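hey so u asked for the seq, here:
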Amino acid sequence: MELKTFGERLRELRKAKNLKMKDVCDSIGLGAPTTLSNYERNEREPNLETLEKLAEFYDVSIDYLVRGTKEEIYFKEIIRMLQYIQKNRK
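ran it, structure tokens below
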């Protein structure tokens, strides 16, 4: 299972609503669409205020934007636990 990045989740949310980057930027007061493009390509990270605006705009939690779905989070935790067990086996 491939885990999505913050940018991938952000792009997926925008495309699900058939919005252009300019639409999102205008709605949340982000400025130039290049800023959102940088977020979607994981080249920059938004500050907390922008994260809050994005989460409210898309009607998702900040946790979802940053960390992903519960299933993705659980999967990451299971992988971490398995790696820890494997590393500490005697």
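The chain has a mean pLDDT of 88. DSSP finds six helices and no strands in the chain.
lmk if thats what u needed
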